[in-house]
Structures
1.
Amino acid sequence: MKNTLLRLTFRRFLRHRMAVVGSIILLVIVFLIVFAPFASRYDPFEQDLLNRFQPPSAQHWMGTDDLGRDMWARILYGGRISLSVGLLSMAVAIVVGSLVGLLSGFYGGWVDSILSRITEIFLSIPRLFVLLALGMFLRSLNLPYVKAGSFAPIAFVIGVLSWMSVARLVRGSTLELREREFVVAARMIGATNMRLMFQHILPNVFSPIIVSATLGLAGAIISESGLSYLGFGVQLPTPTWGNMLSNTQNQMMIAPWTVIFPGLMIFIVVIAINYMGDGLRDALDPRHFTRE
Amino acid sequence: MTQYLIRRLIQSVLTLFVISIILFGLISSVPGGIMSAYEENPDFSAEDIARIEAKYGLNDPVPVRYAKWVMNILKGDWGNSFVSKRPAIQEVKDRLPNTLILMGSMLVVTLLIAIPLGIISAIKQYSLFDHISTTIAFAGQSLPVFWFGLMLIIIFHVTLRRPDGRPLLPGSGMVTLGAPPSLGDRIEHLILPVTMLALVSAAGYMRYLRSSMLDVIHEDYVRTARAKGLRERMVLYRHALRNALIPLVTLIGLDLPSLFGGALFTETIFAWPGIGRLYFNAALKTDYPVVMAVLLIYSALILASNLLVDIFYAVLDPRIRYS
């Protein structure tokens, strides 16, 4: 039997009912988003001023917005950006966090002191406020390679401000693994520090990293949406679930659907990811006893 | 203990110092300098900008400017807001009480919801009540807080009406403009903003208290308390709950950055004249003195609350010894 461990893990995951439901919902949404041109007949950017604020109908499943654009099409294309930002910032957070945690746990001493201080500093800054300041920067910066509505810089910034919990987690595990026999044995037969860290220790920290990556993805999607809602994230006309909500407050009276649907998408996706993370934790760490 | 406190205090001050360097470095690294925001403003000619830059020493090297800035702050001069021309620190001071009212009420409501629900869920683990409340809490933790605020406005301000046709609850501001000031009016204005923040953070605290209560219930000293024949109420509230609340206190202290963040959303959505809204508007207009003042003051508050949590912990939990 190949991959027995993987199969066991998968079977444990399937036992968590909400996690399975969440994964399926997430798969459906990702599928629709990837095949957006086939899932909607409308162009998300095409304005139709004669048909502004149309309520949801057979033609426009989620109605139209203040410029007569089809909401369903914008939700799908906006999902591409929102999920990409989430994935990219989560990747940045995981890479930075794992590296910091690995180095400070492995070397200890002054390396650990310095890196722990840096982690503490990042934990003591008012995150949303700094994100806003950085967003203010990115808006006023006219970088040649950053086009209007490009999402990479904002994703990067979110990632750089959210690696701390991963670092603490990895540091803790590394401290413990460093003293284990297999690592000591590898060191005795002359493995370099690099090899010890990346070949022997890192693979053993994968489970907690995967779990915190899932939860980090949910967090990053919320961060992006909040930032874009306030107007400091991805800039219009590129739609994201967050910036579709900005300036909708004065439309609530006449077109509540423009406020309801984008937020509902964020909510559904985030709760699905969180349940998936919950299931992954139970599946990957059998010692972990959930009391949920 | 005293030694430990002094060491932690020095550490916090040093951390604040490093944060101030980072924040200043950030603001100074805007290409073209902070006046670049005015380059496209027809009221400012290129000469005007050059003159202002020369007058305020904006062309000095960054370390020189940083030193001047810090010295001025130590003297109590945080610079003037670019927008209102008033001292930035005054702008912050004026709004501080409003933010404190909002965050204070929110914290009280949060704890009033989270503590009873957390306790009941833990005591009646796996009951129907437990399942429902943990599920709702899980959903609450996944809610984008600003969207939840917008939904509250749609439901309780736009859709639901009083018999006389007025909205059920006010959707913006702190008081009804033009109406005689009254406590009832102020409380009405608090309901939606506080609900928005409190329900979302109560979700997290409730889950946290539930699991820390479950941990404590299985401890030996709880079994001992039961064994010596104490009534169950006594065991739960005098012995278990007290210890389960300790980690919650830490959590609240360490949660301050996200509470500030939540308040920023609430204040922008409900037009609440607090620090979050001040900061949001300052960031929109690239009003650097105000932006810097808020960032630095909030960082200091967060560091102070981390310090307080440590002290609190030491006082509350005699098992912890510091060397």
2.
Amino acid sequence: MVFPHRHLLGIKELSEPDILHLLDRADAAVQISRREDKKTATLRGRTQINLFFESSTRTQASFELAGKRLGADVMNMAVANSSVKKGETLIDTAMTLNAMRPDILIVRHGSAGAVALLAQKVECAVVNAGDGAHEHPTQALLDALTIRRNKGRLGRLIVAICGDVLHSRVARSNIILLNAMGARVRVVAPSTLLPAGIAQMGVEVFHRMEDGLRDADVVMMLRLQRERMEGAFVPSVREYFRHYGLDAAKLALARPDALVMHPGPMNRGVEIASDIADGPQSVIESQVEMGVAVRMAVMETLMAARDTDPVAEGTS
Amino acid sequence: MTRRLLTNARIIDPSQGMDETGAVLIIDGQIAAIGANAAATAPEGIDTEDLGGLIVVPGLVDTCVHIGEPGGEHRETIASASRAAARGGVTSLIMMPDTDPVIDDVSLVDFVQRAARDEAIVSVYPAAALTKGLRGEQMTEFGLLLDAGAVMLSNGRETVKDTLMMRRAMTYARDFGAVVACATQDSYLSSGGVMNEGLFASWLGLPGIPREAEIIALERDLRLAALTGARYHALKLSVPESAAAVRSSKAAGHAVTAGISINHLTLNETDIGEYRTFFRLSPPLRSEDDRRAMAAAVADGTIDVISSSHDPQDVDTKRLPFADAANGAIGLETLLAAALRLYHSGDVPLARLIEALSCRPAEIFGLPGGTLKVGAAADLAIIDPDYPWMLSKDDIVSRSKNSAFEDARFSGKVLQTLVAGASVYRADEGLPGR
């Protein structure tokens, strides 16, 4: 198939066949990463720039490794403490980078919509590595890949997304993707951590883990930012853990073979008990491995789409 | 002095309940005769223009205009705003005090008046800050500011947080008969929000501003208006619960009035689409149900005034991610054309529209204008209510181009604007040179 997109800005713009294509490619990429010689020539000669306006160790490393395994030249721009802090606008940064003629830009930014705005101003492919509370498409794809490889399918599975949905781009991308693939999505959180209109977002809403986890096939925990733990959204860490932290007793309500997932980095003892995070049902480490594969698949697919149809790439 | 006769016009002047075909006789910049029989009183040989059935209305009076002068002249000057106003049929405007420095001192009122007199082609009246620096902590010199020519006391974009401060300011303003005109948004409840709270904001991942942020702040101010007896004007409302609160306060006999921006009568939150920052406004654009309910509240007179809420912003404050951009859209040039959408849709009768755009604001703030009665200054707009056109960015005369109506289609256009009888804008000639 010809992948019909020039950027990956969100799951929202992807159709079911697009998603399946990326997951299939990612399955193949997993094999590459498990070889002794992990280097391919797929993106040889291509330049990849990782532009992270919000600092991130894991996602940036994952994209860097994915690019290197595809043979691209990878450069990391730590924008969080550079000219952007000195008042240069996002657009100016985009135009500056564009002039350096990269082939692919990986962008994370703290504001929703910022990556799409930047994509309008550059000629290369842009991958959204997280924009505010909007979308984090590669995370949703790697979650889907992890689930599919463990359960054999996505359709009709009950997936409970638990925790800070309000501030979570991971939750939004996952809700869209899982719905597109025919899964049944639940969210479980105190109402202070749910966005307005959540019941109309294609999910069943629960406020008690005891209700929301019942018969779940997948339990997806979200990270709670430290600044939200101490009174602004929930009263305290210990209260949050007691009611919304995933421990053995709560997990027992889910199906016995339920997967436990977390996008990382985890707060052990806040949203998830340590023994669960390291337990037999946890696929958290597998998610990290799938992350590299999904990012390889995304970059390779975008480059191939542009090579097939270079006209859409831009005028110059 | 200007002497001219406009014949064959449909004259709509709600200030005298007039909707008839006739003539407008202007002598020495004033209306000398108006109506079906006015042409007969014209002197021999007077400069006559046959309007061929076009509509003549009193020039619009815009009560909420932000201008960048002083301090942000790259966004808008008093002169450039006045030229934008002339294109929109606006002959008088009230300039908000949130400039840099803030208009909280007599010398700044003087500055605005001098610039208005020397450089503006329409009448520009300053609003004075209600509190020093708009900080909401200390009253300004109401008496001196009003004597100097301020026509409104306003805290600009900011709602005074301190309820006791607001009470004292309103109590003191009452003695001067001044209108305290305020934006109403609870700063705690709206904290961090950038658009209407709801499903649409949730999908965009943007923090929302609940409607209650407006309702709570408005209800507080209406209570204070009742307590103090002050004249109070809510500058820009956006939800029907606010209109209901104003309605009951009026019914209780308090001296309160209310306004709404044209944006909130013609656009809704879905216009934001994929993070279009020109639609980032304060208050935020609400739902389509809210928009329609507010149009009904304008039609029944609960909402007295329609303003442009003109707020020029340059690329440095708008070409940013949505959450990082400034609020505001320009609106002077499109005020009348956009308002005519409500007439064409049948939501608001034409006479009521003109009343809300011209007569009522002049009446509330005690400005000349807003009427074509004999003896009044001949401030008027000549409009074709059906003229089809599209707003192109290149045609915008404001220094800033942040229009929420870029590339929008309109039916109805201002063809000519007169201030004191003299044409300050003719669609077929453009603006007078500068």
